[in-house]
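pinging the channel bc i need a second pair of eyes. not urgent but kinda urgent?? the chain im working w is below, pasted from the shared doc
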Amino acid sequence: MAERKRLKDRVVPKMPTREEMASNRWLAPIAHRFLSPELWRFTRRSVPRGVALGIFAGFIIPIGQIFLAAFLALPARANVPLAVLVTFVTNPLTLAFWLVVANKTGQFFLNIDTSGHSEAIGREISSGRLETYSWFFQTAGTTAVGFVLLAIVGAAVGYLVSGWVWRFIVGRKLRARQRRYMAREGELL
């Protein structure tokens, strides 16, 4: 229990407040929507939505993902601070790792084979004119496909896992409350 409180004490102060997000110059035009209290409550529906949107925004746009997560959280009625916090799965320290993972995922998914190209594309590739840039376009394309796949699959997995964790935590609290109630009832009899 002490471990969770210490983790909570470390995470909660770092989460942006409603006022901080409302005063941001990029969010100012829609700041009135961020002040809605249901976007800041931790409920069984808003928490998985926030996690899924945060993971999706973190992988779709590895730079500037916080604003995308905040914008997407509004129509989805997701928990805004959680969506913003989860986007840090792709931060500057982990971006190189995720670039490699996205590239490998894109290569695996696309299973690039140059023999299947049409004749005109094959001539252009074999001509050598694009040889200096071909590695960049191939790497960028597979990495982009990998990021899209990571965003979709990661969001789905994040939604399911956070929903299960939420149910586990709430169930444990409910069982503890029932035990306390039964112990109190036993003392009264």
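so Residues 131-188 form the longest helix (58 residues). and The CA atoms of residues 14 and 85 lie 9 Å apart. — does that match what u expected or am i reading it wrong
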